[in-house]
Amino acid sequence: MTSPLERHPYGEHAIVLPPKSQTTHDAADIDREIRLLMYRRLHEIRQFEKRAYDMFMQNLVKGTTHLSLGMEAVAAGFGATMREDDYTFATYRGHAHTLARGVPMEGILAELLGRSNGLLGGKGGSMHLTSVEHGMMGSYAIIGAHLTIANGAAWSAQYRGSGQVAVCFFGDGTTNIGAFHEALNYAAVFSLPVVFVCENNLYMEYTAISDITAVPRPAADRAGAYGLQPVVVDGNDADACYLAARDALEHARSGRGPVLIEALTYRHGGHSRADPGKYKPPGELEAWLAHDPLKIYRGRLERIGVPSSALDEIESQVGQAVDAATEAAKNGPLPEQALAYTDVWADGGHSWRN
Amino acid sequence: MTIMSLSKALNEGMRQAMEDDPKVLIMGEDVGKLGGVFRVTDGLQKDFGEDRVIDTPLAESGIIGTAIGLALRGYRPVCEIQFDGFVFPAADQIITQLAKMPMRSLGAIKLPVVVRIPCGGGIGAVEHHSESPEAYFTHTAGLRVVACSNPADAYTMIQQAIRSDDPVIFFEPKRRYWEKADIDTDSTEWWPPLHAAKVVRPGTDATLLAYGPMVKTCLEAATAAEDDGRSLEVIDLRSLNPLDEPLVLESARRTGRVVVVHEAPVNNGFGAELAARITEQCFYHLESPVLRAGGFSTPYPPSKLEEHYLPDLDRVLDAVDRAFGY
Ligand SMILES: Cc1ncc(C[n+]2csc(CCOP(=O)(O)OP(=O)(O)O)c2C)c(N)n1
Ligand SMILES: [Mg+2]
């Protein structure tokens, strides 16, 4: 256990550098097929997010969006390990986790554009992506809300004895809201099959996490308080995420209770569309760009003998898929006004049925 | 006289309050270095320091609880909630403690806490980012609930709210943050009291009651109604709790027709309270029931549908037509 910070150097945080090595997991015991799938996912997320960014910048959509550029490996690694019937709970920064569950791009992109062919008919938007049939149990825009909800879903699996696990992703900033602590205690007390994944990208919006958190590792340093092991992984290395996810899921699935993982990563862009990221200290972004998840993974696959042409081929297939999804999303019809009135009550309507 | 946007007026008001009283503190997520997500506290940390303008952890319940503790010992914290929909984690402390501790302590405790909430829609955001939660708070005794609608009121009301010994829930119409007006910052003589409503356009045939973002909409509706030969009086309530009853009732008795306009859903909205009070006290003066124009009984819609959802000129004038139909 780490002790609390001795002083509080507000606004003077040092640059947090990524791990030094990119070869640590070269020899990891992971099937080549799975690695190729993860490579594809990394690119799907990267190219999707870039397209989403462009479309927001072209003012095709009102409102805002939160991207996972630079954070792709967490979603790719976990997505590749999860069982088809496991549950994902994500935040407003949830495009990546939705893609990682195999939800088709068109529906996600169209949802961002508020079109009828969107995942939620245009009713949820970028921050609320949900696809129950893919185990994507929702994206939540209220900080902390989904951690206890994930517990409930995990508990349902425990009741059914189904062996399903709920995986709940959230940010570093989220570790400071009460709900985080409530959820961990609850999960530990009832040994729930839930895996909490803190994507520590060093910032809560515009504020460095170190300025507002009592310990250096916002999630891992709190694990001990709930009888859990502190786990920190390189969140930019898809294999590191995959291995951590595999262990955690196995632990939770076998009835041994919750796991808390802190994945250290970095968002290349701002918090949301409106944020140019001016608060980032000089040199930080460059250091993390050099530790880019896609770059790391391409290097690894080449070292283990995957021909570059095969990797190029994956990239261009993904590019075509993103283009096709863009066309389909843009051509989707706008929702009817009647959509505003649907599904307030369980019978599908909004006025009471006396 | 200085031309200021509504957000700048709030900023200047807070700056003034901080200069006047060293016990005034600002706290909230990203309010310091960034100056808040809407830049309302821009520059205050630079000028007043990190001890008085505090970037808090992401913890709304913690922010309000801490503010209560500070207020217990004489400080005057001004807390920013980033968006309307994020006040709910704080609602526990607001409703169970902030509103009730003064009464419970037989007045020994005063809690001069201000909770600033950017509210309402119209900026293309979605649920949690466009809502109008005022009725949850007007329903809670012990809280002053106010809503500014224009830069001048923003400037005066924020200072009065900070000086108030009661807790104040302070609603800011986020889609009007960028609207500008000339403000007299040299004198305080023109300042109405915080609880006072204001007739912002006199009229004789019907009264529109509004607050926050809907005041402007109602003024536009009144201008449009002129073409139909109708003279509409527009009242900016400014304070929802306490309510400036005398002013509202006088107008209702004089015009005989009242339409309440708010963005929040009509169902159980603040308009219901107004309608009830006016009906109880002006029954024999009314030419029509008090009518309400507001949001639908649905969650806030996606941005593509928000224009449809938000009360606009047509919905207000339609309600006026109905009032004349009785
Ligand atoms: C209860 C609540 N308070 C405030 C916000 C506004 N807000 C949205 S994201 C965010 C920062 C979250 O930071 P972190 O948990 O690190 O996640 P990241 O955005 O970095 O992925 C804040 C304060 C919110 N959505 N919900
Ligand atoms: Mg973060």
Short characterization:
Chain A is of the alpha/beta class and 354 residues long.
Give your account of this protein's structure.
The complex is a heterodimer of chains A (354) and B (326). With 354 residues, chain A is of the alpha/beta class. In chain A, 39% of the residues lie in helices and 10% in strands. Chain A has helices at residues 32-57, 72-81, 95-100, 105-112, 145-160, 178-189, 220-223, 238-253, 284-289, 293-303, 308-331; strands at residues 87-91, 136-140, 166-171, 194-200, 203-204, 207-208, 231-234, 259-264. In chain A, the strands form two sheets. Chain A has a six-stranded parallel sheet, with helices on both faces. In chain A, strand 5 (203-204) and strand 6 form a beta hairpin. In chain A, helix 1 packs across helix 2 (72-81) and helix 4 crosses helix 11 (308-331). The radius of gyration of chain A is 20 Å and the shape is globular. By secondary structure, chain B is an alpha/beta fold. Chain B folds into two domains: 2-183, Rossmann fold; 198-324, Rossmann fold. Chain B is 37% helix and 21% strand. Chain B has helices spanning 6-20, 44-48, 60-72, 88-98, 101-104, 134-138, 151-163, 214-227, 245-255, 270-282, 306-309, 313-324, and strands at residues 2-5, 24-28, 53-55, 76-80, 114-119, 144-147, 168-173, 180-183, 198-201, 206-210, 232-236, 239-241, 258-265, 291-295. In chain B, helix 1 (6-20) packs parallel to helix 7. The chains are: A alpha/beta (354), B alpha/beta (326). The A-B interface holds A 10-11, 61-64, 114, 122-125, 127-128, 141-144, 173-174, 176-179, 204-207, 211-213, 279, 334-335, 337, 339-341, 344, 350-351 and B 29-30, 32-34, 37, 50, 55-62, 85-86, 88-89, 124-129, 296-299, 301-305, 308-309. The structure holds thiamine diphosphate and magnesium ion. Residues 171-173, 201, 203-204 of chain A line the site of magnesium ion. Chain B: It comes from Nonomuraea deserti. Chain B: Residues 4-179 form the Transketolase-like pyrimidine-binding domain. Chain B: Its cofactor is thiamine diphosphate.
